[in-house]
TrEMBL record:
Lineage, uppermost ranks: Eukaryota, Metazoa, Chordata, Craniata, Vertebrata
Family, as annotated: Belongs to the TRAFAC class myosin-kinesin ATPase superfamily. Myosin family.
One example GO MF annotation: ATP binding
Full protein name: Unconventional myosin-Ib
Record organism: Labrus bergylta (ballan wrasse)
Domain TH1: 891-1078
Amino acid sequence: MEVKTSLLDNMIGVGDMVLLEPLSEDSFIENLRNRFDHNEIYTYIGSVVISMNPYRSLPIFTPEKVEEYRNRNFYELSPHIYALADEAYSSLRDQDKDQCILITGESGAGKTEASKLVMSYVAAVCGKGQEVNKVKEQLLQSNPVLEAFGNAKTVRNDNSSRFGKYMDIEFDFKGDPLGGVISNYLLEKSRVVKQPRGERNFHVFYQLLSGASDDTLKKLKLDRDFSKYNYLSLDSAAVNGLDDAANFRTVRNAMQIVGFMEDEVQSVLELVAAVLKLGNIEFKPESRCNGTDESRIKDKNDLKEMCELLGIEQSVLERAFSYRTVEAKLEKVSTTLNVSQAYYARDALAKNLYSRLFSWLVTRINESIKAQAKTRHKVMGVLDIYGFEIFEDNSFEQFIINYCNEKLQQIFIELTLREEQEEYVREGIEWTNIEYFNNAIICDLIENHQNGILAMLDEECLRPGTVTDETFLDKLNTICAEHQHFESRLSKNSKFLTDHSLPHSCFRIQHYAGKVLYRTEGFVDKNNDLLYRDLSQAMYKATHSLIKQLFPEGNPAKVNLKRPPTAGFQFKASVGTLMRNLQTKNPNYIRCIKPNDKKAAHIFTDSLVRHQARYLGLMENVRVRRAGYAFRQAYEPCLERYKMLCKRTWPHWRGPAREGVEVLMGDLQVPTEEYSYGRSKIFIRNPRTLFFLEERRRQCLQDLATLIQKIYRGWKCRSHFLLLKESQIVVAAWYRRFAQQKKYKKIKSATTVMQSYARGWQARKLLRELKYQKRCEEAVTTISAFWHGTQVRREYRKFFRANAGKKIYDFTIQRIMQKYFLGLKSTTPSMSPVDMNWPTRPYRFLDGVHTELRRIFHLWRCKKYRSQFTEEQKAVYEEKLEASEIFKDKKTLYPSSVSQPFKGDYLEISKNPKYQKLSSAVDEKVLLADVVNKINRANGKGTPRIFLLTKKSVVLADQKTGQVKASVPLPDLSSVSVSTQSDGFFALRLKEGSASAIKGDFLLSSEHLIEIITKLHRTGATAADSEQLNIDISDEFLVQFKQDKVCVKFIQAAALKNGNSVSCKRKNNRLLEVSVPASA
């Protein structure tokens, strides 16, 4: 980013109008247009800032811009409002000088935004801290509150300030804000009751109706519809770019930050609502018996609601609108009000109520933001007030506004000349008297205590008898007729008798900014600003907390028969106080100009800007500044800027800066009458001299730039050449290294090939010798073998002829067997007993041996596998093996039992305390304990029984009580009968004639049938005194129940009603039929 060190660098047009050459009104306007077209909205006139309203957002108010202008010289950067704000703040902080910033311009020129920018800049550059930040926030948030109650939409500006504001910001010795005081001037209270076409009432009315909640509006007795209120104009109720609802929330938040209590905010809103209700009160005429007319209220609903809001008796306020009481010494006279007088009283009450509310808001804000410390403070004042106003129809408001601007112009000229003179004296420069127009004569015409227009207006208002605007004009024509700045058609001055541009009911004043025609209609009423005492007393009787404070004159105990001061007198006094305040401070000026009336960007209207430049006195300001010396600059920056123009000062001057400047100016042969040397600055009289220096500097900079370019390009080329040279050396070294490596690898590869060929030749030579030697040895061996064989055959020929064939056969067989066994050794299968693999036999005659070896090997590895078992595992496998021998391929239930381990004691008899009694009744070791179902022959249903198997007996016990029901010694069992199906039924058949056979056989059912039968079979086989237990597997067998024999028959059923379970039913006395599911 380009960094500027002076406003003369890269100027668009002329940044300081003092340097404009040639100086004329046309060149002045053209320079403003040129800069405006390039988005340069700020221009200087010395230390005065001209601000053009761009009507759009520009990227020149960012935090980066704040830092750029912070602690910089005023002329160091391009013209900007931040430069003026920084200059004022730095002078206040560092030099202990109170400052004031005067912002003037007509409505829509951007005065309010300019004041916000100044305050935001000061807030950004001053100190930080919790308390400081709170003060800054309160100062900044006072703006939205005052804008809501004091700003309105006009034809020229959507956010026009309809009051003058002066804020004193107080700082401590460090430059941190402590607080502030706000003064307001001339609120345009007539806007409350009437607005010109295309304009609105004050913002707060629209914000309240748009942004307040339904509950709040209900409490205030309001409706959102603007058309229901007479005081609100409807043609401009909605404004593009203004969000009244959002602004209302902003105002509520700002009031909270400033320090308003919630009940205070509610009271303010109630008064605003009361003003709206007041505007809806209408009157009708009513004739009295004495022939006079009096007024009556048409609809009392709005009056009733207003009285409820303010806490006033309806009858009291209604009488105040109908009668007026006049007191004179000891007499009281009550007169009726006609309709027009009643409307006047209503509007006067509305204007006074709103105006006093606004003054109370300013006072309340001052209480919150005022400095708490009692020590001396540094003060910076910011004045945002109306600019000079010239309308088609100018009345009392424009008259006093223009009077204020005359006073501001007067103090501006005085302070500017005084500042110039003080600087000349400070620098030791001879002071030359400057001719300028002194507008003191105009100020005297208006404010003179005896013959001034304001004094005569007050005198006319206080005069007994009939007082009208015409009598006031007649008085002016009599007293001011000879004044050179006063013009009237009816005056004694004959030169205006034929001036048809001057109506009979008007007078014209020639202000410093031009002639202004004032219509006298309404001057007397507006200056009187009367509020009938009956209304003041009615307001004082209100129970509302705020109303009593706003109308103290209504107190009956403090009746003052003196007339209140007029509006003109009050404004004149406040302007005098303001002028005295400003004269104690160092002034800084911002002149705001609006480029067009359309409120549009990129449009520059010459006539409008020319008109504003005239009444702001900008040309007069430039002439005053240029009357002495047009430009001045401290020696150090001047020498730093122009030292390249002289060989003796370039590039470094070793002596004092003033001597360097003197050498520089002498070397450039600048005429001595064009400049003067001060104590710390050089003063240049004519802008042409400055432009001559700038032109020489520009040419010299071009030469220096060429020299710098030449040196830089030479350095760059040398650096590039050295870099190329260095790079070439590096590349050459790397290439040589690469080439040598490549050559070495090639030689190494060739050497390796030669070595391999030589070694190959040597190896092949040695191989041939070894092969030859081996063939020789083999030949010798072969010859020796043949020879020995021949010798042996000769000697043993007689023995070989008899059994040579048998020996050869035996030898061959022996070799084959040897080869077979060696091969079998390497192809032996794994040691797993289930591995059925075995190598194929190589010869058919080995078939028997091959099979026998397979059997022996299998038996051997099975023995090896069994040797790994513990005794418990052997017993389990023996039981499983026995179960296989009994049931395999005989009973359908068997395959599902193979994977289930035989647990034996399923009930844990010895551990379960429930069966402790049963465990003690059985002395022997329990081999199997399980729950079985004992089948009843009567109905085929089962009864749960505990089945215990010991080495000597079978025990059946009750499942619940553990009581032994039957105990059968194993020798008494003859056989066990089961079916071939997947059921769990089995019958224990007892030997006839045994003691246990008295009750008959047992027909039981169990889920562990295979395990029970297997253990019974094994236990019976091992018992010494019992025979082998027979296992009868058949689908039909007989069971002896006491004296009867019953046939138990098993059948397969396709589907059973109770699912897949086995069912047993009695068919007759001799048959029990068991149905087994086919899928089981």
